[in-house]
Amino acid sequence: MDNINKNKRMTGLGRGLGALLQDSEKVNTPRANARQSSQEGIGTMNEIELDRIEANPYQPRTKFDQEALMELADSIRVQGIIQPITVRQLAVDQYQLISGERRLQASRSIGMARIPAYIRTANDQQMLEMALIENIQRENLNSIEIALSYQRLILECNLKQEELGVRVGKNRTTVNNYIRLLKLPPVIQAALRDNKISMGHARAIITINSDQSQLKIFNKIIEEGWSVRKVEEEVRKLGMMSNQPSETVKKPTINQEIKSLQFQLSSYFGAKVSVKSDTEHKGEIKIPFASQDELKRILETLKFEVKT
């Protein structure tokens, strides 16, 4: 029986937003059952008053290109709504947007009273999943927005990478490559988001283990305009260097330590200081002076007052 149920669930995967919308028809939640008598229009397309439609609380996209919205509004004014929006019914004559935020905003901006909409049944998790998948399928998303949407689908919708890949039409490797971008330092993520570097640059940088080295390569990209190929070459060089056996750092010998101390003391006193030590760390320090003035200076350095 478990296998049969599993097969039924899996048949909806791979068809993206359309599959979710179809599967959502079969979902019955307590809230949905309470409204059953007022949902004769479920699964149909209707003209709905814009004032009756609430925003999608799970909409992952918070900023919209205003110029693009104006262009869409002009198109709707001339051509009308070509693709209906999708909503779920909350109560009698009360709806909540599932997908079509830009069409809804553009329609409101030109004063439309009603808009064609498909009415679906969806629980909260499906609302989030459908909003995220619709968002991912947009052409103008940057790599970081896609990565964040993938991450939300995995964490909030309890999807595995394989399941997510099938739903968005990508293989697991592609999904993983996007999610790995979120491990980059924030400044590199911001540059990728703002199109200052490409996905190719980021994929090369992410293979470097050290944040410091990642930032060093990133700065070269920005300052010197390194190409993706140049970055890949530098990353390979770093990899070869890291694979070389590191030289063992020799512990300074007693003689080296004494020489170092002798040099520091000579610099401090402004005189040729002599330091001697044996293997048992016994020895002496000599500070020679050639005149009374030089002696006075050495004593002043030692902050030693001569009592008379």
Automatic annotation (TrEMBL):
Pfam families found in the cross-reference section: HTH_ParB, ParB_C, ParB_N
High-level lineage: Bacteria, Pseudomonadati, Bacteroidota, Cytophagia, Cytophagales
Family assignment from sequence similarity: Belongs to the ParB family.
Domain ParB-like N-terminal as annotated: residue spans: 46-136
Gene Ontology MF, one: DNA binding
Cellular component aspect of the GO annotation: chromosome
Keywords of this entry: Chromosome partition, DNA-binding
Organism, scientific name: Dyadobacter helix
InterPro entries per the UniProt record, alphabetical: Chromosome_partition/occlusion, HTH_ParB/Spo0J, ParB/RepB/Spo0J, ParB/Sulfiredoxin_sf, ParB_dimer_C, ParB_N
Protein name: Chromosome-partitioning protein ParB
PANTHER family associated with the record: CHROMOSOME-PARTITIONING PROTEIN PARB-RELATED (PTHR33375:SF1)
Record has DNA-binding as a keyword: yes
Listed GO biological process terms: chromosome segregation; positive regulation of sporulation resulting in formation of a cellular spore
